[in-house]
Amino acid sequence: MKRMEIWADMVCPWAYVGKRRLEKAGLGEDVEVVWRPYLIDPMAPVPSEPLEDALRDPVAEGALRACHPALPPAGNRASLSTAAATERIGESTDPRTGGSSGADRRHGAVWRANTFDAHRVIALAHGRGGAALQDAVVERILRAHFTEGADIADRATLAALAAEAGLDGMAEALERGDGTDEVRSELLRGKAHGVATSPTFVVGASAVTGAQPPEVLADLVRDAAPPRELPDEVRWLRQAEALLGLRDPLGALRTLEPLLTEHGDDPAVRLLAARAYFGSAQLGRARETLESLLERAPGDHYARFLLGRTLERAGRHGQALPHLRLAAAMSPEPDYADAVRRVEDRLPA
């Protein structure tokens, strides 16, 4: 069975449009569709604030562009209105009303809502009932936000919506913190894999962004390259590397937690951790980690250089200079020589 992952936020209207288009793609039962978290507006407050007021804020306006970055805000809203009408979003899907009565068209989105708890509920739905239950919960949350004016950041509201979709016990689960670690880990995984807009559809090693037409989504499933099966340790290392490249050292450290627990003596793991400590200004931990690495491998020129940079950043220029000079002698890297000159200039003649 193939798996499609949809990285999307529940306050992104294009995610709702994309869901409708996916339903028309006719993927069949041999494709598992799993919803993954994405935050277009991570600074959204708790409790929620009226959306009309929030859209006067350029930060909130920028969140709309994160749903469809190719369009300017005005074009985004115009295109969205057309797409929503075409996909009949906001109309009843109850077969008793023929699916076109408009009976569920009530208020529209009225809240700038923080969706972290909504993503927790969605993740728990998949864990407890699989893709079908998760899809029902996603549908109920989207409809509540976009057509009923519900505040999907409110935990009592989320618990009630989940129960309507067939998922009970969410009030207690949210209070306990269930799903928090999973959502945080998935947000980091998405970031490391380059997910940068909502919605993003991923199958194997292939992806498309935006609310694509049904035929494009069907082609994605048919033509997608299979994912590379990697051991968890390799996957975590690569994710941590990617997060460091994205200047998220704290995310890299979170990714490395299981590796540090199980493979804390591995030099590659420890060097990555040292880089993350340095990047997050945890200079004491960086120094201790690098010194222990160099005890075992004194010829590691990069570890030597990073130790010098750590000491330099801590204002310990006299201690930094020998390490930087040794690193520069071992490798012709321009950064090494630049660091030596910089520290020499800061020391008295």
From TrEMBL:
- The DSBA-like thioredoxin domain extends over 5-220
- The domain of life for this entry's organism is Bacteria
Q: Report residue spans for region: Disordered.
A: 67-106
Q: Which InterPro entries match?
A: DSBA-like_thioredoxin_dom, Thioredoxin-like_sf, TPR-like_helical_dom_sf
- A Pfam match: TPR_19
What SUPFAM superfamilies has UniProt attached to this entry? Thioredoxin-like, TPR-like
Q: Could you say which residues form the signal peptide?
A: none
What is the name attached to this protein's record? DSBA-like thioredoxin domain-containing protein
What is the organism of origin for this protein?
Answer: Streptosporangium longisporum
